[in-house]
Amino acid sequence: MQNMISLDDGIGIDAMDVGWPLQDLGRRMARAAVMLDSRMRTLTAQPEEGAATAEYAVVLVAATGFAAVLVALLKSDAIKTLLTNIVKKALSV
């Protein structure tokens, strides 16, 4: 049983019949399959881990741009006058 390369489906290949190069190839293929399975499980476990961070960054940039436009509007003389008149009218009631 030591000279057998075991595959997942239960089929064994006798290393004495096929030689060492094929046995080495079988081991490398089995290892590659395990590594691929591990990588796929890792990717599917949390597929959008970095997407949330990117979404937060986009929202933060948009909010900053909106705040800059709002500050620019509030600094203009027309808006200052309009807001001052609204506050004066509200306080006179």
TrEMBL record:
Record InterPro entries: DUF4244 (IPR025338)
Keywords: Membrane, Transmembrane, Transmembrane helix
A Pfam family hit: DUF4244
Segments passing through the bilayer: 56-74
Superkingdom of source: Bacteria
Descriptive protein name: DUF4244 domain-containing protein
Native source species: Bifidobacterium castoris
